[in-house]
Write a structure and sequence with these properties.
This protein is mostly helical and about 220 residues long. It contains nine helices and two strands. The protein has a domain at about 1-100 and about 200-218: Orthogonal Bundle (Recoverin, domain 1), CATH 1.10.238.10. The chain has a two-stranded antiparallel ribbon with strand order 1-2. α4 crosses α6. It is found in: Cell projection, Lamellipodium; Cell projection, Ruffle membrane; Cytoplasm; Membrane. Belongs to the calcineurin regulatory subunit family. CHP subfamily. It is a lipid-anchor. Keywords: Calcium, Cell membrane, Cell projection, Cytoplasm, Differentiation, Lipoprotein, Membrane, Metal-binding, Myristate, Nucleus, Protein kinase inhibitor.
């Protein structure tokens, strides 16, 4: 094995440890990354924006921004990258990795929390630790009004009513005149407590389905 191959093998081992992907999966995803980037070492928002499978996704913008959100790298940084390399790309993809039969209860709990945090970050666009009414409105408007079945004002009304319901659910003793600043991550966890996230949260736009990919480690 040459020096370059040795370095690549060590790099893949490190990435496998950090992301939970097998060496085989990392190899497959690296090929997809290189195809997407045009053999470049980094990808941009434009690269992801050109993916046909994302064209009709109502939250395409949020999905793309998630790849460049520094919060999703688990390094304590806040902000956004202009471009990302394969390591950062793989870390984001790992949020969509489902558990396996070998995944322990503690690992499943940690995995669920990471998925919830990832979803929370997608909605908390200003990184202030809260999903505000305005941020929530934007998501609901894109989900509902783009279909043409409902108007913008109706979508806003639905968002407002949903946020009020969230406020009363997460803070049942909230005074009538209390100003609800937004959903915290703790409230977000409570709201989604009964939702099975482990296998539902997946992504397929690089000819790779993170649900059906083998998840056994090498």
């Amino acid at each position: 094995m040459g020096a370059a191959q040795t370095r690549a093998a060590h790099s893949y081992q490190d990435l496998s440890h950090k992301t939970g992907f097998s060496l085989e999966q990392i190899h497959i995803l690296h090929k997809r990354f290189k195809k997407l980037s045009g053999e470049s070492e980094t990808i941009s928002r434009e690269n992801l924006n050109n993916i046909t499978a994302l064209a009709d996704n109502p939250i395409r913008k949020q999905i793309i921004e998630a790849f460049f959100d520094k919060r999703n790298q688990h390094n304590g940084e806040v902000g956004a990258y202009e471009e990302i390399g394969f390591d950062e790309f793989l870390m984001v993809m790992s949020h969509f990795r489902p558990p396996t039969l070998k995944t322990s209860v503690d690992e499943k709990t940690a995995m669920r929390k990471e998925k919830l945090r990832f979803l929370f970050n997608m909605h908390d666009t200003d990184s202030d630790g809260k999903i505000t009414l305005e941020e929530y409105r934007k998501v609901v408007e894109e989900l509902l009004s783009r279909s043409g079945a409902i108007g913008l004002e109706a979508a806003r009304a639905i968002a407002d009513a949903a946020m009020l319901e969230v406020a009363s659910t997460s803070m049942p003793d909230m005074p009538a005149d209390y100003f609800y600043e937004g959903i915290t991550f703790e409230h977000f966890e409570l709201i989604l407590n009964g939702l099975e996230m482990e296998s539902r949260m997946h992504i397929r736009f690089l000819d790779v389905d993170t649900v059906t990919m083998r998840c056994d480690r090498n």
